Amino acid sequence: MLEEVKTFVHMHKLSSKGHASEALLTAAILDQELRTAILLKMRPSLSAIKQERLFEGYGPLAEFGDKIEVAFALGQIDDSTYSKLKIIKDIRNKFAHLPKQCTFWTREISLLIDKFHCKEKATQPQIFALMAQECFDRITGATTEVAPPA
């Protein structure tokens, strides 16, 4: 429990550093939730070592994009969530790889946010947060619906 609190505090500090850290942190959280959703469809007795081989380093499910594809193929996310997660992944990649300081209003990022086709009156950061929250809710909803009894 103490480790989770430390992680939360660290994430909060990161998120206060700007748009790039918000996008990177959001993608990391969604990545972890996809991992959980995928694991629910796998053998319950899959060892930690085998999980690590799948999800870490050069494993076949180490990348966020790979988890999106597999979660969709397993029926853990629907078409809408799949599309939104792909855009979030692209936004994360832009923030991580653009050679300059950028924000949600930077042209390359703004064009990606427009792909959400959000009908609500909201700023670019608000749209990103709304879409990310919707994805999070759908993924965690899938994991709680399918989770075996404790």
Describe the 3D structure.
The structure is a single chain. This protein has 150 residues and is mainly alpha-helical. Helix content is 69%, strand content 0%. The protein has helices at residues 2-15, 19-40, 48-55, 64-73, 79-97, 107-114, 124-146. Helix 2 crosses helix 5 and helix 5 packs antiparallel against helix 6. The longest helix is centred in the C-terminal third of the chain and has 23 residues, at 124-146. Mean pLDDT is 87; it is low at 146-150.
Oligomeric status of the shown chains? single chain
Helix % is 55-70%
Structural class: mainly alpha
Report the major sheet: none
The amount of beta strand, in percent, is under 5%
Terminal CA distance = 19 Å
Q: Which spans have pLDDT < 50 for at least 5 consecutive residues?
A: 146-150
Average predicted confidence as pLDDT: 87
Quick take:
By secondary structure, the protein is mostly helical. It is built from 7 helices and no strands.
